[in-house]
Amino acid sequence: MNHRTRLALFVFESIAHYHKELKNGSITCKKVVEFYLQEIARQKHLNAFIEVFDQTAAHSAEILDRQVAEGKPLLPLHGVVIGIKDVLCYKDHLVSAASVMLENFRAPYSATSVQKLVDAGAIIIGRLNCDEFAMGSSNENSAYGPTLNALDNSRVPGGSSGGSAVAVQAGLCMASLGTDTGGSVRQPADFCGIIGLKPTYGRISRYGLIAYASSFDQVGIFGKNIADVALVLEAIAGNDQFDSTASSLPVPEYSANLSVDTPKWKFAYIREAVEHPSLDPEIRSALLGYFDQLRNSGHSVTPIDFPLLEYIVPTYYVLTTAESSSNLSRFDGVRYGHRTQAATDDLSEFYAKNRSEGFGREVKRRIMLGSFVLSAGYYDAYFTKAQQVRRQLNDQTQLIFNDFDVILLPTAPTPAFRFGEKTEDPIAMYLGDIYTVFANLTGVPAISLPMFWHSNGMPFGIQAMTNRFEELPLLQVSELLVKQRH
Predict the structure, then answer these.
(1) Cα dist. 34→12, 19, 31, 59 in Å?
(2) Phi/psi at 267 (nearest 5 deg)?
(3) Residue 1 has what pLDDT?
(4) Which residue out of 99, 110, 138, 184 is catalytically annotated?
């Protein structure tokens, strides 16, 4: 067995196994970083990374190896190689939100989630491709070109965190961070056949995350097994003095409490979601068959009516575009952002050129839509009404969790689609978020689990949700669901 093969065998198994190898001296952080750098170069065509932090990663590996040699105990994420989505700041490194608008911006500080990774011993190996300003469902809106799905290069990896999903899918890092505003962790996880977790809003600090829609944006985690995702969540969750929306609730020891004897679970699934005409028939059949399998194992799986489902997508897009219109107004080319080289003496024209050249098509579309729903004469008709629907969604969701432990849903209506299939039909693209935006509107934690294979050769999974701040039960039931399937 050559050295490369040996590395490949253990690197992809789990963080726990990797740490065991570090302790017994079978491998070093330096060798692992070298391996991943080679893999990233070998699979460069996937375009998962916008930039590789090779020098930073190598330096971090040397420090961590020295600590092992000195007999110091391993840190929680000691030597774990992680990629971060290009909307998360990492001090003294470029961060662009995959946009021309910020292509030369260097972060003056680290996002709290990134700093916590570093403090826990993780090695940040690079920044990952995404839809511009996290606006998209296919990773076709990046200024750096699309990321390719490693299973089928003709198909999208999902978005907006497509690069973060592919980096884990293709074995370019051990885990990665993405962001989830309306499903941007769970949907690409579904398309790529890996695990994607969106925690409760406020569980992970948003400080240092370039904002799209502040009341929706959340940092999420990609991994290949539940234990790794739990360990990363444990490391980065918690209170933050720099973010008033970060929860001060204590962070449970997720990774140490995954395997426990639990009672039979009470599952609910939304009847209208499974019967929705947009849902691929193979996905519907697989889910219904799986629900029967859960029932046969002694769990209850109950269909429930949720008539608000048809209002979820329009409510989400009214509110998020309104917030994005406000958030992205700061990028004007004066304080920071792209500045036009075209000569002009008119200030309004100067601003217009900066933003027209700096922003891509999808970002402009959402800014314009957001400006419209916030405008005089339309504010009450759209924005206020959407806020009222959001409140009703929250109320109805709490009623469901009064009677059930977990809500099960499809993650996406179809498996990964082909590049260009929906780019000219933004409404069709937006409607693809029908099953994921629910968790962002209500702030509850949700996870996408890889479970099935479609006849077209692509993976698809199931989405599970629990009540707010119940990530531990969510991770525990995820372990059950994955084992139940296999």
Answers:
(1) 15, 17, 5, 12
(2) -95, 145
(3) 40
(4) 184
